[in-house]
Structures are given as structure tokens and as C-alpha cells.
């Protein structure tokens, strides 16, 4: 396929400048990653961001699939001897997969249909006669076709009608008309399977036992819930437009007379609609609506994951990680500022053991011995009670306390990664270490866990798993590269997501570091086995060396731009290090002087921003949080109460908020703000500290309805 065709189609669809699209496609084809292109090739892309580049990549892939399908279509029709110049032109001009399949449908190899059998019996000429609707006596005409298995005129006419029905079902115009009707009017209808109505597993689908809604208005979470109920054999789902209206439209296309032939065509059209067209279009719209729902759910998941990965880090502090529990006690780990495990033990401050005084003495001793600066307490069972216990203790210095999401910690603790890191420790110790490290650097720790186990998705097991994985991998890659990675402390898992690396090169870097000591310059990366010029170009700008001889090695300035900065420093009569420290010297730089055919103002502006704060972490600063001490269970709640809470999950219908009662409350999308909200992620962020008002408490089902309207945040 010529790149110009691809460029024109994508540029028109995405409303982007064609030259930028063409250059972006070229860069992608050369193996450049999306983070690299968006950060270091702004001149070539006209400043496209990651979202735009990803859209170009996705659309390019889809168009290439259509182009490949065209080859099959052309080959098949040509081999049948039915290719014409006009048909070839229509196929060449078609870039819509549905439209292409419509063109191909009459020629597509099929299983033996009723129409195919009728053709084999020589009834196609009779179907043409009836379709023309000029014959006064179709029965008389049909008698000429009575032979072999066709015993009489009625059988001949029935066979001819089967051919007409298939012809109608393969008519492009008719299919498009029905699609239009389904787009405007289709209803999605859900009914409970009667034999399952009273079962326990059906109870959660009770809202959909007798449910109908216009398909175009059906939200992704409702559609996915219904489809899950269908897959579990509890619900029956159908999608349908107005049958009479649809058939009337089809009849107007094909019924041209009121005579006998017209009546036969009308019957064939009705048969075509009920037996062929409607099931086909219903299946098509079921797939389209599922794909759309998947896309929305995946977008919600990806945005939640992005917010979680970019959660504020505490940084390099000595941390006590606490995995709370009642009967089994609380597992305690002490970590140094680099996250290394120094000590672990268990305490039992809660019932049924209730060794509170002993636990207090243990904690106070550990805090003093390891000079603990902060506590990370998991948010699972006994979290609230453990946090209150820790707050009651007295230490010789300030110890900050944070509640940390422990979603996925158990998955990590049983993983191969955890076994490699802590081969001598059991799963409880590994889980507590993960909780502690999440406080220090959420991104570095969470990349070790399958994103689907982190607990921020919506129907993640029901959506297309390939698309979900691709989206989540891209999200992790985007987050890792936007923050940057310390080349000398990053784990193999974190390095894997750096632009241009992957598992093999990440492992080679860690091995090189182990054998040769810390990296002192980015240029040393070229000595890492199998890390060639292309990989170096892609990864270098995202890797940081805090104590490097060249201060630019601890910045987002790419090595390819070092000469520009060195020339700036030379022109200012100072070193690069002095230029970074001296704001006045930087102010005097006239960027226009450094523009070249390949380096324009976008790159130069990025360089100046980076020189202002080299290696700056873009994540926000972490804040302490405390639940209302008087509210510990659902029984304490009353309508109208205003409480502090933490956003734990965001869906397209609202946000879930932890208010410290062991059951998250829901702030429906209509209650998120005093204005209309289309996208909850524009109003709240994951782990954001918010104030909420209790609207309703359903103690029987442990459901809490909350509102953020009229409250300041």
C-alpha cells in the first residue's frame, strides 16, 4: 500500500496535518516507540502527543488489515471469473471493512444454502423471471423447471424464492438501510432464563431480568453486565429494530408490482429479513456494541491505571510496611531508603490474640532501631484498626503514616518475581514489602504486577483481552517514560518498559550493572551486550544517572542534543553545570540562534524547561490522610453526614470512595459535581482525598450512596 493513501485516509479521519501523519507513520515503521516520537521528534510530527500518535498507529494497523483483506477478496472473485473493471475499482476505493464485506458477500464461498441448492437444480432463471415481476402466471412459468428433485411448480417457485431471499440479503443498499434503522432505533432486550430466575447466582443480575433500552443509549457497564449474565446462562439478550418498518423498507426496494410475482417477491423479502438479514445485522450490532463497550471499559481501566502508577511517591525514606490482620496478626517489615528488606516480624495487637502492649513495645523498638520515617499500612482487613493502634503509639521522632492500597500484593507475593527477590521469605513477608515499597515509589513497585490484578478496572475479564493487554502495556510504558528511570537502581521489570528496551535488554543492563558497578554515564549503555545504536537512541533520554559526571545524564535532554546545550554554555561563557544553576544566564539565551534543519523551537523549548529543573519528577507530592475517627462501620453512618474519603476506583458511571467502614461508597456520576459531568476522570483522580456527603445507606446489601455536590475539595 502506498504511504500517501494511508496518510490521506488517517489525516482526514483524525483531522491532523498530512505531513505530520506521514512522518509519524515512517517513524513507527522504523521501530520508534510512541513515547520517543512524542518527546524527541516533535518537529517531524508537528507536535503530536502520545494519544494522537497511538491513534495514528491503531488506524494504520486497521487500514493495513483492510488492505490485506482486499487481496483475498480480489483473488477469490478473479478466480471465479466474475471480476470486472468497475468491481475492481469499487474494491480498490473501499477502506471500510464492513463495506468491503458487503461488496464481497455475493461472491464469498458459502456452505450449501437453500439458495445454492436451488441454483444447482437450475432454478436461477425462474428467480429472475419472478424478480422482474412481468409474468402474469408464475405457476405456468415454473412448470418449465419441473425436473429431477423438483416435483411440481410449487417446489420450483419455493426454490426460486430461496434464491430471491439470498439475493435480497446480499444487496448492499438493503443492508445499509437496515444498519441505519438499527443505528437509530435498535433496542437491546434482556430477559431472565426462567429456570435460573430464583437461583442465588442470578440475584446480581436482577436489574436485567426484564430490561430494555435503546442500544445507542446503553452504557458500557450495563451492556457488559448483561453480556456476562448471558455468558453465565442466566440472561437471554437480543437486539432488534422495528420489524414491520424494516420489512416495509425492503419491500419498497424489491416489490414493483401488485400481481402474483410481486406477491411472491414480497414473501421472499419477508423470509430474507427474518431468516437471513435480521440475524446477520443483529450479530453485527451485537459485535459493534460489545466492541464499543470494551473500548470504553478499557479506556476507564487505562486511565485508572495511569493515575495509580503516577500516584505521589514518598521517595527514598526508611519505611515500615504493615500488612494488617486480626487472627493471623500484622506482618511488619522494615525497609531501608532503597527499599531493601532489613527486618521482619509479626505483631498481634487485635482480637482474638490481643497482645496490644507487647505489640506496642515491638513497634516502638523497631522504629527506634531502624530509624523509621514513615509507615505504609495496607488498606485490607484490619487496616482501620491497625492505623488507629499505630497512631496511639509514641516515638522519639516524627513518623508519618499512610494507608496504601494492597490490591495485587498477594498476586505479587506468590509470583516468580517475588520468589526471585526474596527466595528465603514467605508470601506474607513479600506482601508487606510490596506495601512498603508502594509508598516509596508506586510506579517502580506496581510494574511488577499484572495490571489486571491491581483492582482498578471495570469488567476487565469480560472485555477483549488482547486489546486490554495492549492498552495497559502502552499505559505502563507511557507512565514509566514520562517519569524517567534511575539507571542504577531500577529493577529489571521497570527497565523493561523503558522505550526501546524490553525484557532481554533490561536483563542485560541489570547484569552489566552487577558485574561492572553503577553506570557513570549514559554513553556506557553502548557497552551493554546487544544494546545497539537504535535501542540506545530510543532509551537514552528516559534513563537518569543522578550522580553522573555530565549533569545532562540526569535530565530528559537526549544525548543527541548535548552539543546544543554545550554550545549554549560556551556562548554564555560557562560550563553546562553552571548554566543549569544560573537562571540569569539561561534567560539571556536567544533560542532562534540554535535552530537547525533538524532541531526546531519545540525541542529547544523542551531543553530549556529541562535545564530549569533537570530530572524533576512530574508526580505530585504525597499527602497524609485520616478517616473520621468516629466512623468505623456502616452502622455509624447516617444520611447527611459529611466525611473525608479516598477515591479507590473510577468507572464511567461514577467513583468509589473509601470512607473507612470496610465497604466503599459510590458517588454516582450525577453526584460528582454541581455541573454536568460527562467523564468522571475529569473531576476526580484515583487516590484523591475528597469530602463526601452520605445520601443513602442500604445496610442489608452494604451499599452506600455518596455525593460530592456542594462540597469543597
From TrEMBL:
Which CDD domains does the protein's record reference? Answer: S1_Tex
Q: Which domain of life is it from?
A: Bacteria
Q: Which residues form the S1 motif domain?
A: 640-709
By its UniProt entry, which Pfam families does this protein fall under?
Answer: HHH_3 (PF12836), HHH_9 (PF17674), S1 (PF00575), Tex_central_region (PF22706), Tex_N (PF09371), Tex_YqgF (PF16921)
PROSITE patterns from the UniProt entry: S1 (PS50126)
* Ranges annotated as spanning the membrane: none
| Classification via PANTHER family | 30S RIBOSOMAL PROTEIN S1, S1 RNA-BINDING DOMAIN-CONTAINING PROTEIN 1
Q: What is this protein called?
A: RNA-binding transcriptional accessory protein
Could you tell me which species this protein originates from?
Xylanibacter muris
Organism lineage = Bacteria, Pseudomonadati, Bacteroidota, Bacteroidia, Bacteroidales
